[in-house]
Amino acid sequence: xxxxxxxxxxxxxxxxxxxYGQTNWEAYLESHAEPWPKENxxxxxxxxxAEHRFVLLGESTHGTSEFYEMRATLTRHLMENGSxxxxxxxxxWEGLKKANAYxxxxxxxxxxxxxxxxLDRWPRWMWANREFxxxxxxxxxxxxxxxxxxxxxxxxxxxxxxxxxFDALRDWLxxxxxxYLSTFDRQMRALVRYRDNWPRYSHAAWAMATRGPETVPTxxxxxxxxIRAAELSKREETYFLIRARSVIAAERHLREARLNNAExxxxxxxxxxxxxxxxxxxxxxxxxIIVWAxxxxxxxxxxxxxxxxxxxxxxxxxxEKKGTENVFLLGQTTGSGTFLGARTWEGEREIFAHKPxxxxxxxxxxxxxxxxxxxxxxxxxxERGDELxxxxxxxxxxxxxxxxxxxxxxxSQLPQRYDTLLFFPETTALHPxxxxx
Length: 437
Fold this sequence. Notes:
Blueprint: H1 11-15, H2 25-32, E1 34-35, H3 42-50, E2 54-57, H4 65-80, E3 84-92, H5 93-103, H6 112-116, H7 130-143, E4 153-158, H8 162-176, H9 181-192, H10 198-208, H11 215-229, H12 234-259, H13 261-280, E5 288-292, H14 295-298, H15 305-308, H16 314-322, E6 327-341, E7 350-353, H17 362-369, E8 374-377, H18 379-384, E9 391-394, E10 409-412, H19 414-417, E11 420-427
């Protein structure tokens, strides 16, 4: 697959800004960083975060075990505490739909690992790993002791399973309104013909100019009207509407990849935000949602060069829509260790070792100052109006630029980007379920 289409999966290498400069970060970290408790860390910090309806949990790499385990620990705490009901991850709707059926006891699969081994889109290891499977098993067991209306749920908010969503929508239409099917198929033809070759659609949409792309929103608008008019449960209707929006967002994401990289990224980001919103509408107002995604998605885009380039993310969108009092953004990062990744898009999975962080980056300051996990809250800095300089902050997606590790940093105004940051001096790679990828 042409990597150009997916260059925005990791922000750091795309922006190409100068990252470094002498800062006074050492003084700030010395006075504000606190040791992360080794025993029962959620007892102190969990209640502070539970006050927010939307808790977004980040990671500086996709392939790090400690990041997944920490998010699972915080997720269990928030669910057990009774404040949050769903977890929504940076994964595909269709693939995670099977995981949700499993935790609800509505699946034919015997284990979470069996469910996750069925994931078929690269990189499978991002969700088909031991750490995530352990959380799903806990959710399933917890649900067995709860009434159905209080079951925990897990969902995907990404757009890349749009062909499966399209198939499900078309099947529903075939069974419920076959008279609209020929019109629907005609309007969807331009996109569907490239369902197995997305880069070609990007080129084709560019060539079609103004006449082609608008047929997809038109087709989905007609379908959504029919879904809303049908006698579906609130949950069923929501699921179908999310699927319809994922197809619209995927088409825009692919179309704009050739014309406008910011809009390509934004189509995906807006879909993520709207998916979380729609799922929250299935819950009572006092119950919240936990989001798992990369730091480049959950850290406020306006505090990085993304904002200067007209880019948004779920962190900035949720803060704007829901208010900072209802949204908590937690970043995670590391100083050294290993992680899973690949050298190219759809490349073979490898275990990489972190290069030593640049000495003037955030990770450089943290690594030289602390030998134990630390938590760095930023609320006090914002309240006092501290002018902390922009600093380079590590960001590694599923593709790792082995020969250019300096590209894996994003210039960040950290007090504006996160509410709190967790730092691990050394971390280890995820434990994938598939033998090879």
